[in-house]
# Entry
Amino acid sequence: MKLITNYIAIIFCSIILISCGNTISTLSNGKQIDSRLAGEWTGSETDNQIEGMKKEWVMTRNNDGTFVLDFTFTKDGETNKTIETGNWWIQDGKFYEAHSESGLTDIYTYQVLDKNQIKFKSVNISIGMNKESYEFIDTRKASAKVGNSTKDGSSYEKAIKVKSVADEYKYVKEHCEGCQMGSQSLSEYKGKMYDVLHLKKSDGSDVSYYFDINSFYGKW
# Structure
């Protein structure tokens, strides 16, 4: 009876490992990602980082291991926005989030609650928090899809939101290694303004990046 029970347990564990293994892929840099975490996600929290401050975000995790994090902070009736970029991966069952702006990496445990919700709990984060244990849930945006439809700057629909022209050049430098600048154009699409950077890749092919500049266009 004990042998049968052990056999069933082994089969059950094997099924779980196979199921989870199908979601894990290895990037060209050797790091691994869990495809269940890719896509466009939203979340919010209050009082965790600073007492009286509400933080909301839209996180776009791409399948190439890059991310764009659009934060909105509200405190004492004043609202500010920031955009962060970087790389993400998983290792030993933990989620790693390396921020290009600060050069620091946050580490979380994560639990996939279902295909539309992921729970994160901090292990080591680079900013001070009001609460010792920092937890939050990312919820997938209804219109978002995993894969090529994430905001990678490849079209107007997938334009990267930025706060300055400097952010555009920084993004291109980090995501198009060896690319040479060709030209920059200002374009209007469906009533919104975009910067389009045209570059030449190291292999001689052309590539363009689209940036949503409506957060600052015409406001200086």
User: Anything to note?
Assistant: Residues 160-212 form one domain.
